[in-house]
Structure formats: structure tokens, C-alpha cells
């Protein structure tokens, strides 16, 4: 929302340093995104075209003799000579003239120079060159009454003006107008605010004889005001109006459209004009569409209505406009228009919002209707339109007597009970009733002493006020909303700063702390954390060999490549490994701790349908740890499981497994924790690697984080085991073990049979080769034996040794070597 | 044993005068010292040792002959003999030490190593910048008495919008470009109308976690909710469809807007340093009232005005406000008894600011050349 300081001043005597005013605006919640001091343009003055001559050497430029008091030059009769590329002016026209030495808004400094041999002693300016309008084609032609030689900006009434670009929050419909901004700022500055009453001289017939209004759906349209203006001649609006509109971001079109936009900017009341001659009987009706109706809007597009969309219809129920969004082409104002039917309505916010969003037609008008316009301004805005159109039309217009004022459902006036104690509680500063009045009355929130004595809630009711909410603040509905207004006008910065203290100490949960530890274990093991996109292409899931999962789909993805939620961390991590490999970093080790998604938990069909609880409806989310070693082997991943186990005092067991999704067919195992499968470890299926352009082996570990951290949390409390002070003995045992038996099984057997005195088992040598029978390998273990309370005798050591040998040979068809 | 030695003058039985004995002691001492000095290795010194000491050694033989001297002369010669022997032992011990030390020096020299030629060993990995930033933020808030809450990333419409005072047709819903999940098959189990699945969204903020906390935990509540959030945004230098937010929630008796301002100020100086302060500006969010925008002193220019802060000296960090009474009511909390505030801001942007990263997308390429810098 752009506002000019000079325009604000038409509503309140706002004075002060423009930068300080900007601070006030920001502090009031209308953040100043840009403040522009309009360039004084001192060197740009009003000059007269005294003569036009062709350039002897060029067709596209002509020579202009410029008359400027006190200046003489190379032109005819001592006038200044200017080379000019525009041909729209005539002798006698007043034009803006940039004298030599002027710095233009764009930074260009005007100098005396020669163009194709002809001297140019200044520049005649277009509106665009002065940043006062959109027209870049022709020179601005100024009104003949402008004073010759006077500075242009002062003649335009823009000298010293300031343009503020404000960011207006959706809950401030009032700030979508010059008047509304002025009201807020005036309240802050403590100066009076007033919307001047428009003066309309009504010279035409009674409006009811030429126009009529019918509100068919009262919930759509709360108020429908109409005026009729005759003797309209469509022309250009005056420069001051064009300049204001341009500076505020609207493109000047013609006098009627410009006045319409001017009133919208000024009062926040969008309005629409029809060519009365094209509206049969001057009748306007409004109703909701039943759906399927078609209409060509002003932008030339044919629009199809859905059930519930708001329409303007003519006497024959034919659509001629979309309520609050855009008018129809068939009743559009044209150059031949002489009578204007003016509509100024109040629409239901949600209806406008729905229709404009669906049609993709977000206009300055719909934006204001969506936020809520002020229905009480309807008659004033109608009159303001007539007043302005009369002023900008040469010879004036003839306004028909009276207004039509159709009424539908308007929101009732809101009254809010405001307790000073509650305000003080919410804001952290004590406010008296009088202080509250002082802050609220100037912004139109009228306070009266509440006669409702019934106390409500916990706050004392002393000095309660009844606050009547004005029609331009539909956003203020509750006592808390009023608190924001109090805070805003008192000043957020002036409210104190206190720090509340939690009665409990701050802390992370054990799982949150252990998750941090886990990340550091992984980093210590040389892995770097990445964060791949959790959105995948359906194909990427298959490419990673994840065949078992039916991934959760997005309903409105940005692209097919991001249309499903990852069912596994593998696709993301292998893609990241491939990315690095393709950038000549072939052996990265990466990990991620992140959520993978699955379909909502399956219940039996009958209860599932009835169960709409979040837990039943939402997809399952499981937090996984994924780790990948590009150019790594299964051992890398297995070692990491051991490292994690050591770090958290856990023991994983591995079970070789052959058909795990995305995994190498014979180099993969399930990771078990207390007998429960919590992950997989091994190498990525070489086919999957190749699909990603990875020719090296990739090791992979995936662990379900929740059970891991739960076990770690329990293990964190493990009791101390006394370190034995008695000597230990080591024995080495090598077995020939069939390949079908996992080393981990042999180990388990040793642990189980070794008894309490067996303190550690280390697999220290593996041998496959000529000295072994085919299908077997040698596994050599070192067992350390120790007792807590005595030195083990040779006989006791021999006993344990034999027990272990017997157990392994018996359980695994193994043979001691 | 009295047998005369044949190879030294001192051993000649013919001359046993004290003068002669003293002369031969002196000579033996001189020879011994020379032999010790001549030994170049520990082995040679060991050989010399056997010729210096013991009864067969020159001094040893002289000592054996002492008995034949008259007592008064025996004392004089004996003293000389002891002195000579002590000299030799001292010289020998010194030589032995020196030779051992030099042998060790030589041994160590042979172990010479250029430590700079060591091949690279195991490397440490790197935590992602988002993790590092999140943990730093968590630590500051934990220090201020907050707990850390987590919740699901896919949420029902209720938790993401409705409970936050954003009913179905609320125009402010367009403030978030929402990604919806297609759980179509399930919906068909329901009333068959379809479209119901559209009420499962990827959370657009971590506010639903606040709702979940308030539903189960009676006040007082002091918690933060960091986490991953989703928007239907095309990736560019400052937007990602997937990014990270941290929100805070306090609900207690007597909580006021001033508590919000004070808490944010305390956080700001704890996280950014004493030179950085905060300010609040009126704003609008459906779930807070009053609402505010939360600015901090520009961390680049410390308020002097620069390009980053568009010469204002301030940068916008996030949004905040007093929890809307409707939100408290939706969670079954009596808003007359309890009041609260909430705030939220982006984590990713803090990481960018801290390290001078211009393009948010760089943080998510997973390029090891990026990751390994932090």
C-alpha cells in the first residue's frame, strides 16, 4: 500500500520529519518497506513550445524551440533549441523542461550536447522520465494555466512530498486506504482526523427514475449503493490526479477509471462503473450463481461461474459482472459513454475471497473486499466519486438527485467489554480506564462505561469499558483484539520487558541427549551428516531397489520428481553418494538421521473407517539412521554397529539375510537388538549402485533409532562390575567350521558355554584355503578367563577349555584344529 | 700366589724397592688409562676391563707383592696402589657411560622419521549446519528453562490449522502454501466422497507440536519445538520446500506481552551476543493476539545500516505474540486463568547468516566440499 504524505494531510494536519513519521508508521504495524522523498527536480520547469522544426540530418528527431523566461539560446528568435524524439506536442503547448545541469530521477545529468550536428540545450520530458506517470512515448503536455518558468513539482503540488510504501497486515482492512492510514497516524501524533464531507451539486433527475437495485442474496451483499452521473465526457484526468495514481502504483487510464481508482485508494472503497446506456433500465441485481453461467470479463476472458459465486445481473438476469472481482465487458465504459451508473457495494468477505482465488483474479478491489470494507462509507464514497468526476471533467457533469441504497445482511455492530485489569494482565503494564480511552477513542473505538455489572472470568471487573467497534475494523471482535490496539497505540517498544521463569529446570529428554551422542559417534567414525530431500520421484524408490514399500504420495506436488515421501533413507543417501562421486569425491561416507514415511497403520476396515483420530489417519513416521560408505565394504558398516554398541553399552547380533530391499544378495545381515530386528547392515546391491553410476562397492547401515535410543537409555543405568584383581589366562581355539554356520553363532556358543569366568572372546584369525576342506573355514578365537575371587588353577582352565570345545563341536559340526 | 709375572717391570722380583714399586704403579696406571681411552666400543671396553682389574692385572700383581715390604713402606706403596686403582675404575665407569650413551644415540638416529610424510589417517566427519544451529538454539533455550518438544511431520488439518484458529475457509490460510498428502485408498473406506484425505498435510510450521504439548501437558509450559517443515515453494536462493523452524511456547499464570519481549531479548543476547538486541513490531498471525514481528539488530553491521538490512539496522527474524484465546480454548486451557506467548523463526536462515552463505540451496546439495567446511 503506497501513500503520499500530501494525500494523508488532506485528512489530518500531519507534520514532522518524514523519517520520524516512517518510524511511527512502522511502529503502528504498517511497516515502511520504502520511503521515497520525491525528487525536488528543481531544474525541471514549465516551458512553452515556441516552434517546431525538422532536424536537417535525422527523421526520428525534431528541433524544438523552447521558450523559457530569462533564457536565450540557439533556437529561432533566441529561444533554446532542443533535439527531441517525440512528436506529440504542438506549438504553444506547455511542457516540462529539464534545464542543463538537472539530475533526472534515474540519475542522468542533463548536459548541453549535439545530436547529429544540432545543439540540444536541455530536454523536454515524458511522464515516465520524471517518474510521474507511465507514458514514455510522448512529452507530458501540461495545463495551459501552469506558470511559465515555474518549477514543475510545485505546479503539480508534489514539491517536498514523500511516498511511503507500507506493508499492511491482513487484519488491517482500514489501513488499505489513505484515510485509514491517516487516522492511525493522526491518533499516534495526537492531531485531529476527519474525512471531509464531499460536496455534490445534484442537477439531474431523481436517480430512482433511471436506475434500480435488487439484492437477491442478502448474505452475499450487505449494501449496494448507486448513483447516476450524466453529461460525462471521457477524457484524460488532470495531471495531479495522474501523478498521484502513478506514484501509488495505478496506471492512469481515463477520467472515469482514474476517479474510480482514486476513490478506492483514498477511502478503501472499491467501486465499479457501468455505461448506463448498456444496462437495460439501469437495473442492477446481485445474487449467487447456481453454477455454469458464463461471462466475458473486462480482461477479455470468458469465465465460468461455480455454484455460490457472486454475480451482478441485469434486468433480464443476465450476468454483467462478478461481484467484487471484475466487471463484464458488455457494460464497459467507453469513449462514447455519456452516462455512468456507479456501483459501490459491500460484499461478504469469504465469497469474494473464494471466487477471486479460484479465478486467479486478485485485484486491488478484491484484495480490499476480502479483508473487509467499510459499509458506512458507501454514501460518502459515492458522493466523493461524483465530486471528483465533476471537478476533473471540463465543464463539469450532471449528477442525478439522490442515491440508491440497497440493503442486505450487514454484520451487527460489535461491542466488546474491556476490563482494565485484563489489559494490564495481557500487556504487563497497568492501564487505567482513562488511559485506555485515550488510546482507543482516536482510532474510532468508542469507549463508554460499562453498565453490565456481571463480572466475567478471573479478572476483576473494576472500571470495565464497553467499546463499540467501528465498521472499518471488522477484525476487532474480542477483548484480546482490543488489547492489541491498546498495545499498538501505546507502543510495543514502550511496554516493559520481563523474563518469566519456568518452575522446572530446562533439559533435553534422555532420548534427545542420546540422539546427539549418536550423531557424534557417527561423526567420530568419519561420517558426515547430509540432509537429502525427503520428497522422491516414484522411480527413485524403485531405482534404489525398494520394492516392498508403497510410498505415501503427495496430493499436490510441485513436480513428479518430488511426488512421494521417502519410505527409506537409502534413495536419498545413495543419490548423495553418487552426486559426490560425480564430482570426483569417490569415497564419501555420509549419514542421516531422519524420518521415513509409511501408510497409516492398517486397522480392520470397519473400525478404521470410523477411527478419525490423528494416530489412525496419519502416515506412520519412523526415525531411521542411515549410513553409506561409497567405496566401502560390509566390514565398514559392521564395524560401525560395533562402535555404536560400545558407545551405548549395547550388544547387537547380526543374522545373515539374503533378500533385503536394496541390499547385496549375499552380503547383508539383519541387525538385532535383544532379539528384535532393528536394522540392516552390509553392502548395497551392486545393481542399485550401477544404476546410480557408482562402480565401487557401497557399504550400508540402517538402524531404527527409537529402539536403539530406548535400549541405550536403559543401558546408561548399567551397574559397575568389579575389576578382578586375580590373574587372567588366555586360551586360543581354532575350529574348522562349515560356511553355513555364522561366526556369530560360534561366538554365542562359546559365550554360553564359557561360564562366568569367560571374560572376552575375540575372533582373531579367519582362514580359508588349501589346508581346509571345501565349504569350511578356520575360525580362531582367543578366550580370556578370569575369576573375581581366586586365581584359576590349570585344571579349572582346562575344564573350561574342554567345555567350550565340546559345545562348539557339538552345536556346529565344527572340528577343533 | 707368588709366581712372578714376566711382562711388567713391577713384576721383576729383583727390584722390590719402594721406589721401584711406586714407579711401576705409576706406569701401570698410565697404561691402564690409555687402554680405557683407546676403547672405541662397549665390547672393546669390556676386554680392557679384564686387563685392568683382578689379580692377574698389573696392579693386582703389585698388590700381591706388598706383603714382602716392611710395614712402614707397605703403607706408602699401598696408598699409591689404591689411588691408581680408583683412578682406573673411575675412568672405566665414565668411558662405559659415554659409550652406552653414544650407542643409544646412534640407535635413535637410525629411527629417524619425517613426520610430515605420514599418509592421511582416519578422518572425522561433520555435522550438518542445520543440526549444529538447532543444537546451539536448543542449548540457549534449555539454559533458559525450556524443554524440547517434537511431533510428527505429517499432520491433520486440525493440528496444522484449525486448532491454531485457522478454520477451513480462513483467508489467512493462503499465507502458507500447503502440501497435502494423498491417502486416497483410506478415504474410500470412509463415506466414499473422497477428498477427505486432503486433510492430512505436511506441517507448514512446528506450531502443531505446540497444540500437542498443550493437549497433554497441563500448564505451566515452557517448551521449544524445533523441526522440519514443508511449504509448496519452488526452491530458490532463500526458499526451500523443506526447511527448519524453531518455535517456542510459554503458558503460565500471569504471562504478559512484556514477558514475550523480555524472553526474546534474553534469547537474542544469549545467542547473538550482547551487541545484538531485539524489537517487536505489530503484525498479524491468526494464532496470536496481540501479534508481533520480531526484529534483531543487523548482525552484519550491528545496527549501523548496511546492504543486508537495507540500511535499516534491523533484520526480521520471525513472528510472535500472545497465544490467541481460541487456541488455548481448543486445547482445553482456561484462557482467563492461563495466558501464554509463542514465537517462531527459521533455523536455516540463521545458519546462512552465521557463515555468510548466499544461497540456501547450497546447504542441501549434500556436497562433501560444503559439508566438510563446518
Question: Would you mind describing this structure in some detail?
Answer:
The complex is a heterodimer of chains A (817) and B (374). Chain A has 6 domains: 2-38 and 161-171 and 182-189, Phenylalanyl-tRNA Synthetase, Chain B, domain 1; 44-156, OB fold (Dihydrolipoamide Acetyltransferase, E2P); 202-407, Phenylalanyl-tRNA Synthetase, Chain B, domain 3 (3-Layer(bba) Sandwich), CATH 3.50.40; 415-490, Phenylalanyl-tRNA Synthetase, Chain B, domain 1 (2-Layer Sandwich); 510-606 and 615-715, Bira Bifunctional Protein, Domain 2 (BirA Bifunctional Protein, domain 2), CATH 3.30.930; 729-816, Alpha-Beta Plaits (2-Layer Sandwich). Chain A is built from 22 helices and 40 strands. In chain A, the strands form 10 sheets. Chain A has a 7-stranded mixed β-sheet. Chain A is elongated. Chain B has 374 residues and is an alpha+beta fold. Chain B folds into 2 domains: 9-112, no CATH class; 130-371, Bira Bifunctional Protein, Domain 2 (BirA Bifunctional Protein, domain 2). Chain B has helices at residues 18-38, 42-52, 58-64, 71-110, 129-143, 157-160, 184-189, 207-216, 257-272, 325-330, 348-355, 368-371; strands spanning 147-148, 154-156, 181-182, 200-202, 221-230, 242-252, 278-285, 288-297, 314-323, 339-346. In chain B, helix 1 (18-38) runs antiparallel to helix 2 (42-52) and helix 2 (42-52) packs antiparallel against helix 4 (71-110). The longest helix of chain B is centred in the first third of the chain and has 40 residues, at 71-110. At the A-B interface, helix 7, helix 10, helix 12, helix 13 and strand 27 of A face helix 5, strand 1, strand 2, strand 3 and strand 6 of B. Strand 29 (553-554) of chain A pairs antiparallel with strand 3 of chain B, so a sheet runs across the interface.
